[in-house]
Amino acid sequence: MATSPPPVGYRAWLAVVSVALAIFAVVSAEMLPIGLLTPIAHSLDQSVGQSSLIISLPSWVAAITAPCVVLIFNRINRRSLLLFFMLLLLGSNLMAAWVNDFHWLLFARILFGISMGGIWCMAGSLAIRLVPLHVVGLATSIIFSGIAAASVLGVPLGVYLGDLWGWRFAFICIAIMVAVVFVMLYWSLPSLETDPTAHWSSSLDVLKQKNVLFGLAITVFMVMAQFSAYTFIRPLLQSVAQFSDQHISALLLFYGFFGILGNFTAGHFAQKYLWQTLCTIAVFIGVSLLIFAYFGGSQSISIILLLIWGMAYGGVSVSLMTWMMRAAPTQIEIASAFNISMFNLSIGLGAFTGGLIVDHMGLEQNLISAAVFSTVAALLILLCVKTRNQPQPLESKRP
Q1: Helical axes 136-149 vs 245-269, angle rounded to 10°
Q2: Angle, to 10 degrees, between the axis of helix 274-295 and the axis of helix 299-314?
Q3: What band does 6 get if pLDDT is binned at 50, 70 and 90?
């Protein structure tokens, strides 16, 4: 007679929720300037193009920070290190709200990028250390729901507060939330000892594994597809679909709600059907963007496509992290760090590529280009399956 799995204590679930809120705060702080770029530029006497550095620079800094955190601080307890980066996140947002010079704002965003890389590389791999194996899938989905939740509540609320009381107040609100999450993490996180054997040679060993390399390549093209298109979601809805300003915030809210739904749906199916889930996500993103390029002028069609797009992308982070956890089950933190590094590099690269295409060819051509990126990701997944390099499910033991 099969025995039922042991129950999970409330403190473990509180730790999972706290990590999810940390992710929520990081993503909110990362994406907040997208909606406040114009008032920030005007306030600091900068062009909008120049001011966009406060968005792209932290992503590139985080891409460098993530693997360095794992390798340089390999002997430091992960609980202590996560709390340190939360304090750095708090300080960077307070500094961003305080400074009056653009160069100091860039410095604050560099500090934010360091904290983002540090938090991301640890948070993504914490689920398997906080809860038993039979609920790791649910815990991972909860942690990564912070991404979709930030797009639903964090960014629109920040923009709303910025419009009411100025962009500085929006950063102050993020800082207050970070302080609350810090207290929750301090109380709920157990001691998280590290494996001091992690070093540069072991990281290179991870990069020699074909399923890890496939996972990183899939990450690049899938994230580039998303951010080459999503960076220009506002002009897309205004110029192509002809929505008014008052409708766009509501549409983005629905986009985010469907993203949360997609996060938990993908997290559930990825436990048994990982490559099929990722391939389905890539196909749905590509098809929705391609159809939008040709039929986005119809508002009813564009709404349907936007919701499909949001639900599909909502499952990307949890599915990619599940891939990396399975690809390197004994070196999850290092594999996660490289994945976060490529993820952030791809955000910047996707936004940069999309900007070039939009400037020279237009919004519709950019959607077609993004659909091509997503198609390449799907083909890489199929190639991985054909060559039998897809990762296998985790065994019933912790790394």
Answers
A1: 170
A2: 160
A3: very low
DSSP state of 331: S
Q: What is the dihedral of CA 382, 385, 386, 389, to 10 degrees?
A: 130
Q: CA-CA distance, 16 to 267, in Å (whole number)?
A: 15
| Topology match between the domains 10-198 and 199-392 | yes
User: Of the ranges 11-15, 54-58, 112-116, 257-261, which one carries the lowest mean pLDDT score?
Assistant: 54-58
Question: In the structure encoding, which two tokens stand for residue 27, read together?
Answer: 């993503």
**What number of other Cβ atoms are within 10 A of residue 147's Cβ?**
26
Any idea where the domains of the chain sit in the sequence? 10-198, 199-392
Class of the CATH domain delimited by 199-392: mainly alpha
Half-sphere exposure of 74 (CA within 13 A, CB side): 17
Secondary structure, 3-state, 83-111? HHHHHHHHHHHHHHHHCCCHHHHHHHHHH
Measure Cα distances from 239 to 155, 168, 227, 235, 250 in Å.
22, 29, 18, 6, 17
Q: Looking at per-residue confidence, does 155 or 364 come out higher?
A: 364
CATH number for the domain formed by residue range(s) 10-198: 1.20.1250.20
Distances (CA, A) of 104 to 36, 107, 237, 343: 17, 5, 33, 26
Long-range contacts of 42-49 (CB under 8 A, 24+ apart): 43/167, 44/100, 44/101, 44/102, 44/105, 45/102, 46/102
